[in-house]
## 1
Amino acid sequence: MKATTNCKTIEILNLSDKQLTNLSARNVLSLSLVEMKAVQDYFRKLNRNPTDVEIETIAQTWSEHCKHKTLTGIIKYTEKKGTKKTKRTYNNLLKETVFKATVELNKKWCLSVFKDNAGIIEFDAKNGVAFKVETHNHPSALEPYGGSATGIGGVIRDILGVGLGAKPLANTDVFCFGNPETKDSQVPEGMHHPKRIAKGVVSGVRDYGNRMGIPTVNGAVYFDEGYMANPLVYCGTMGIIPKSKINKKVNSGDLILVVGGRTGRDGIHGATFSSMHLGKESDVSAVQIGNPIVEKKVLDTMLKARDLNLYRAVTDCGAGGLSSAIGELGEKTGALVYLDAVPLKYDGLVPWEIWISEAQERMVFAVPPKNKKRIVELFNKGNVEAVFVGEFTKDKKLTLKYDGDIVASMDMFFLHEGIPKPIRPAVYKIKEENVQKPIKMNSASLLKALKDALADLNVCSKEWIIRQYDHEVQGQTIVKPLQGNSIEVSGPGDAAVIFPYTVVKGTKKGIVLSNGLNPQYGKINTYKMAANAIEESLRNAVAVGANIEKMSVLDNFCWGNPNKPEILGSLVRAANACYDMSKAFGIPFISGKDSLHNEYSIDGEKYSIPPALLISAMGVIENAVNTVTMPLKNEGNKIFVLGITRNELGCSVLAKIKNVKGGVVPEVYPKESKEIMKRIYKAINSKLVESCHDCSEGGLAVAISEMAFAGDKGVKIDIDVIKTKGELTVAEILFSESNGRFVVEVNPENKFKFKDIFKDCIFAEIGCVREDKNVAFESVKNKVEVKEKSENLLNAWRNTITW
Amino acid sequence: MKKVKALILKTAGINCDYETQTAFELCGAAADVVHVNSLVEKKDKIFEYDILAFPGGFSYGDDIASGKILANEIKNKLGDKVKKFSLSGKPVIGICNGFQVLVKMGLLPDPELFEQISTLSYNDSDKFECRWTYLKTEKKVRNESSCIWTKNLPDVITLPVAHGEGKFISVNDKLLEELNKNNQIVFRYSTKDGKIPKYPLTPNGSVEQIAGICNTKGNVFGLMPHPERHVLALQHPAREGFDGEHGWGKIIFQNAVDFVK
């Protein structure tokens, strides 16, 4: 061990607790005192001080971002309901909730779950499909364009780095932003305006995703002032991989090959800084700089190398850069790396910077020596730089050399297992919910409410974003994000379907992608928020023709500071909902990610974001041709509502625009919902469904209006025959956001066959498609008639976001 | 009878190669995706093929201007070969970024001249836009033009566009007259019934709503819309096509394959 001019020793052996804490803060290590003491003990045993390279390596490896130490740590949870208290201790929250459900469900078509860069389920006899969703929140707050671009670039590399590499087929993007109408004076000092963040984030995803030639086919945008200084940027990628390429194994003696972009000083401390609160002092140099064309070249060439079996393992350089990538691959063997062999963008990087830089578009391969020449030739043919930087050893140590000096030497075991388990308290108080006072509205105010709901930021058309994304590249997007009977009209698709006919020649199958998210509900009850997100993602997929028995989901927790017991408690509640719903619906989680510490400071005050759980669903559809879209198709067809409407307007769109106090947040009834979902699949595959739309924000009124204007048709609805639980007012029936409901268009000829499939389910025939292009909701009982040209409703929906 | 062979030229940033290859295969051709580097190594390999295709994408990131770098690279390294191939009368197609490449190296509108006399510039909306459009296939063209790619199409078809730089501009009005006179303007953005549209049906503001042009001989064809994204009815937003199963794009590729046969 020798300190060179480029590598300093860090005094730690004789530091007091206070000094350890300061060291952690000063060097952006984001390590707690307990963790710093563990480091101190280790080096006391070695009887020497660590080098800066070693300290940084530990900080990256032990970061929340890489280790998920909060959710895998010990949590002492207390739940309060009224005066009743219940306590429970979790030794590993994820293993005891989300992951537990998957293990118990034990679906044989789950090929790889929770162990690789993405989850993989079976596509057909030869292939699997991989899906991963990542977050890139902090970078997007500081540098919206670069932050989101490298977010999508990063998750694409997760798919390239799963197994021996999958071919990306589609991207998904979900964003949470502050209110774009915020007054400049209300934007905290040093932060970007929410609208600027939104525009920058969309441009970043556009320029990276489009250049990669991967269609962005599904997503959502959610506006809430709680995300003003800390937006959420979820980026997902789905890819296809031969079953024979799912497993990777590093052998001692394999060479370490770094491929793609060069290493620079961008993205230093990305992993550790994501565990710190955002403020005006946050450092932009933590944000990486992306170059999609470099990544596209890597993609094109590495899949060739994969099919020639030129390497044994691969992973991407994400958070922590080479230190994480090589550290993971070499965990069981050990690794020797010559840092001065790593190609640099420019001179002047010291060893620890080279080792932890999160410069983009880099992949690390484990290459058997015999393929040394061939693999480099192959990459160079595609104008991709590929350089050997070391080898995987058998000493189970991490050894780093620079200029011939050893600048780091640590046991892999300490690096990966040496982190002390934190113990955190968590509390959650379950709020009381009561039905609001009856909402009585006349025809005129109902119509106004309908238009306001369609124009609401969280309901309105996201066309401005969707059109900037090439959602049709690869020619396989057969159920699109915007759907219309003609080019001139459009409505919001529930889910996207990819028909991978260019990759799997002769296939009939499709892959469905959808999502569910509603942070509003979390403000009342995070259990219900999670349950709703799961059901919504499934409902969206089922609406286009997915088989509920062949669906899988991903979880993405974006939460505030977990050191605050009530914030961690709200996460525990959500995780429990994930377990319950996963079991009840029989839907396994196959992968997930958490981004905690979404906290920002304004004038010294710290604020946490409203908790958000994004559920992303993926499933395989037997017969892609049978999928359906949401626009109404033909005059004279009948309209059915499946499922029952309850008085559930808590946190609803109507509650927001009419400022209604109280109300019950929608409950999820898995048995009831799943029964309907199964039968919809049957009805769709018996060709009995002309169009189908899921019913969520804005309730039946919004769902039916969307189907009408997307089809450029009229519709007449009899409110009085809609099945409800108890007495509801017209407004409550039209705008309640109860789960488990679908609106379906059926050809009169098929009416009886259709009804037969749903016998002993709750459903009703409520109207028909009409030539006159009016959307009309009528209740004779209440003397109400809400009537408007579908074109006008389309414009109300279209004209909110036209930036 | 030997299979018709299509060469699909790709380089860094090209991303519509797979679906273009599949489209040719669907029409009974054998299609190879060839990297520009390997063609430069064996230049005459190009003459082993019957059809030459420049697919869509963002060649070299579209830095400087869309398609410009690839256009220069091809002109410098393969110029004479590509010109010879075109003048031999074999079918050549450039789609989206490929159209931008053809125009910027001057293979369109006049491969004999082989100089850039028109361009594809930023959309009027100043945004990348992905949407479906109606395309008017000029009646005269269908009957009299020599364009081999667009035969047997109805008056109006639908194809998707996805580009940020698709506004066709010609060097002067004289060229525009020429193109009109010789029926070289094969596709124009239009309304459902073939009338002159407004934005967004004309997605980029091209002069005379130009969406695609060919050379006078009719074998070299470039267009901004993506025929390879509508070879199946399933790919259409309302699942429309010409025979219930296939999309309009297939006819375009089929025309070239049949022409070679």
## 2
Amino acid sequence: MQSTLRKSVGLYIHIPFCKSKCYYCDFNSYAGMESYASDYFKALKNEIFIYSDKLKGDTVKSIFIGGGTPSLVDGRYIYEIINHCRQNLDIDRHAEISIETNPGTLSLEKLTTYAAAGINRLSMGLQAWQDSLLKTLGRIHRREEFVENFNIARRVGFKNINIDVIFGIPGQRLEEWDETITQIVRLDPEHVSCYSLKIEEDTVFGEKLASGSLVPVDDELDREMYYLAKDCLSRNKFNHYEISNFAKPGFECRHNLIYWKDESYIGVGAGAHSFFEGKRYNNTCGVESYIRQISRGNMPVENVHRIERNEEMSEFVILGLRLIGGIAANEFKLRFGTDIFSLYGKQLHQLSGRGLIQWDGERIRLTNLGLDVANQVFVEFI
Amino acid sequence: MPDERQKKIRNFCIIAHIDHGKSTLADRLLERTGVLTEREMEDQVLDNMDIERERGITIKAQAVRMIYNARDGQEYVLNLIDTPGHVDFNYEVSRSLAACEGAVLVVDAAQGIEAQTLANVYLALEHDLEVMPVINKIDLPSAQPEHVKKEIEDVIGLDASDAPLISAKNGINIEEVLEKIITHIPPPVGDEEAPLRALIFDSYYDSYKGVIVYVRIKEGKVKVGDSIRMMYTGKEFQVTEVGYFRPGSLAAGRELLAGEVGYIAASIKNVKDTRVGDTITLTDNPAKEPLPGYKKVQSMVFCGIYPADGAKYGDLRDALEKLQLNDASLLFEPESSVALGFGFRCGFLGLLHMEIIQERLEREYNLDLVTTAPSVIYKVFKNNGEIVNIDNPTNLPPAAEIQKMEEPVVKATIMTPTEYVGNIMELSQERRGIYKDMSYIDEGRVMLTYEIPLNEIIYDFFDALKSRTKGYASLDYELLGYRESNLVKLDILLNGEIVDALSFIVHADKAYARGRRIAEKLKESIPRQQFEVPIQACIGGKIIARETVKAYRKDVLAKCYGGDITRKKKLLEKQKEGKKRMRQVGSVEVPQEAFMSVLKLDT
């Protein structure tokens, strides 16, 4: 089946504003540009309107408002943009609608507005339980604010909450990570994302690393933390379903599953990425240039890359293997009309020999060892 | 006695230490004599290759003809022969010098005499050249022209009292240099009616005309249609073109006469047939004796060169063949290594020559290379009386079959400011140097003479020398001969298997330290693998050092960047690219940098 014929898509809406930039972050986000919010949301609406034509006949099965810090801007903007989506696109009645939030920017009022807008999944960036580590990371919030807003969100009625946490923070001790996970479990969210910190070049951490003033956590400790999270979350009925993601049964993030299953999605907003009609592309990154281009009636699209069949098969495998359930041989066959073993037999055999993947007769998935060194597996399919 | 025609010719070269301004002066002379207008000038015309310009050195000899209207009202032909500027090319330098009557000695007014200045001056004096000192860079604030003049007089014994004080960069006093060339350097002599004797001082391959041979006509004459013979190689050719040199081009002429410098083309296919130093004569009326001084060039340094990507073996061969077209001193023959696959064992005149060839292969031919540690030629005396020359450590016979070994030793001349003498003595000691002599050039600088095994020099001696003297010391060396030495073969094992490309021959006293250091270096440059990798250094089966590369624990991208699959893939592609640059040695993946890192142990 061609991806162009598929009838459902995900919609990603990027909000690039932040109060300040976290030390590890190299996403497309900007501090001190909130004054553009009004123009920016106008542009977003226009872009969504432009897509409404192309998406005729397609159902939007998930909306993900990410950032940046979507919760930084007035709740009204969020409410309006979702309304705008409903007016112009065919949003599935049961669509998952998520928003990323920073606990330091939330309030009862905002959370109520989100709920009223129909947002049914809240993602909260806790990152660490200890205020000292939050400071290390350059976060603007304290643990207390997180706990408070988590409880408010529950009272407002959010029944699907994700908590983002980071491990492998410079200076972080295993006990601190243990405390973070234990406390999260106690709060009982539906979803937890545990990301191993990666130090990127153009960040405060990156500069510190280059100048030698930051000592990264060694791989051994990083893995201990990962195992600890896997262990503790699994014991508490969280299903480990992707390398970094854990969810109570039925609460797997449907939007992110679109990425991992190599399905179509549209990204709107500055720097947002799309995979649509067999092409991958992204919008221009700058807030001003994005607004300008939209206001001139141009699509602010860059780096259009048509995904040919070979590349699509490789991406399908690489993305699919991120899921703990892996990829099903018959799904591959159904989508591409080719037997996965006849195509990748050599790689699969070699990787299985190295103990990095396993095959149970239906699905190919990473082993526990493979989870730790997944890139070693992925490169074989590049 | 020169005849009237010859009295109007001056053949000269410019000699200098690296960076003292030889090429800049040459450019100025060309500009001043109108060979080039300022507009046409690209800096340093004579150094054609990018590498020459970048490093400020001349690799190939060049020649150019200028017409100068002197103050005496006469018109002169000036032939400038630009000699290679490095000890590796000493033989080529000597042949270029033999084509001249005089040498302009350029000395930096701030730096004074350096090791190479001396080496080149002595070489010029050996060839009975009139050496004419010129003090350059007088515009520098740190210039000390009077001091440098005195240095020239004290150290070399040349009269420098009326040496032109110039700035080649700023075009100051260039005419004085030209005038002095006329008055100071003698014109050529040589009977143009005698049988032809033309000295080959360089050549290059032109895809249309065949080999262009650079010659100085010592006696006789040559013209188009003449049948010529190379007196040493015995090869014969029909002359298709003769002429003079313009920068970057040739100007065909009718004939070349005794005393002149020019080129001969004769549909010659291979530069090997036009060896530098050979004498060209006419087949019909041959000279009795060739010109003196011919030597067959010998490679001093060898290394294995392999394509990083095994599939590029053919490209590497083609590139080496093309380089050899213009560089008869480059030797190569196919060899294979268990670790590196198929490649070539290459022979070079010296370290610089080796570096230049590697750099040209990478830059001009876009090849990614893996090179093995350089080696010298060892003489191995076997118990059965056989003597073998070994230039590849892998071929060393088993220790039990060896009666004794000899290694080449050089005389190294090092010039340095006095404050670094201690450092240099220490370094030379570490490198098994035998102190020979120390003399003062002036109050601030000395010349040290050591005898050092060549295999100590070819590692990173020059780098170490520079770093221990803040770049102030200069080095020159010449081969003295072979000496018996207690040498052993040091092998490196990865995961228990010998990596042939990392084996080398070393003095027994230094084997332990070197083995340890190499193991440490390799540990730094070999990335973690799925399994623990032991690194061992061993001599004759005995382990002398061990390091371990731990198994990797983590290699995973945690986050999915808002659907930015492209970025993730780019990282994976980069990783794959890195993997491709790895050599599979047994079960261990070794990056090509690892093979190089063992060459730089002092840093």
## 3
Amino acid sequence: MKKVFNNADEAIAGIPDGAVLMLGGFGLCGIPENCIKALVKKGTGQLTCISNNAGVDDFGIGLMLRQKQVKKMIASYVGENAEFERQLLSGELEVELIPQGTLATRCMAAGYGMPAIFTPAGVGTEVGIGKEIRVFNNTAYLLELAFEADFALVKAWKGDEYGNLVYRETARNFNPVMAMAGKITIAEVEELLPSGSLDPDHIHTPGIYVHRIFQGTHYEKRIEQRTVRKLAD
Amino acid sequence: MLNKNQIAQRLAKELKDGYYVNLGIGIPTLVANYIPAGLNVVLQSENGLLGMGPFPFDGEEDPDLINAGKQTITTVPGSAFFDSAMSFGMIRAGKVDLTILGAMEVSEKGDIANWKIPGKMVKGMGGAMDLVASAKNIIVAMMHTNPKGESKLLPACMLPLTGVACVKKVVTELAVLDITAGGFKLLERAPGVTVEEIMAKTAGKLIIEGEIPEMIL
């Protein structure tokens, strides 16, 4: 069982053109920065990306959009990205918008080995068009399928040689459920530790879900909306 | 007529001790500034936090700690982090007591539209559809009319829906209204605003019973 890779380039080797990827993160918080940069360098194309957001023009998934590596984007919110908008309006990019909870739960279902879930989100809206509806206890629910992703790219705070992962603060977001959902899950961590270094009680993602792990470098951790209060407040 | 901060101040009166509350982007976010002293209210941010605190002081921003509007924030003592699936799990399971969000249109039946304007760039619904489909108590905070002066309280929404028959109450710069089986029931009017003005700016069915009191902020 060798899960540890030297760097992002080695860890993403084997992701082919046309692959379906999950990418963790909320906005620019907790995104797999190193994997994205490696994919941009390698130029892997025709990708389907499942991620809550699509980055900004010059960071995150936005870097892959700029190089036209993304064929289809599945997300819940895609504002703040001019290149994304241009590609969407010109028809170069296919986009599927789905409710955020549905996105998270379709990942969760995949990681829990369940083919589908029922959710009330989107009932009576255009999101529900063409989907099976079931009524339980007088409430209507949409049938939504578990995602199938070839690779999940996630970012954690700490990890060990077995692939056990610990996230930090709200950088956790979609990372644990996507880590569980990928056929092959690649985790990049700020700190890679020897086995036994992490308290088993504190592990968020057990290593069984993680196939490749590496310690990332040069984390930029860009802030999208820097908001502060003055000392007088 | 109320300004945005006063709308938030009026909304804060809907909070009760022990409430778990999700605040949407815009006016709802301002409600956090008016939580009455002594009231224990826990703010949920759907990106994975219970116990959201105020913005950090300059220089203390943490890129790993943001709210659902992607703004840097802090935590309060007793806070907890969790993943996105659990976040929407607690919303879906009805654990969040109150959701306050903005809207482009609300119908007299409680339908809400706030995510898409056909022909314009669509940014996505984010967590709004999940919230309105599951929360048991949904209050909309918005202006009574759009920039063109047209009513946003309608017989039926014209924009694509976010959720159906889910809004319980609407607070605007002019009025507080409950959504009832018969339509918008006028509960309070803003200081200096007449019932006639509210009638003129409400396109949906408006129910007026007896004297309508002025809001107390």
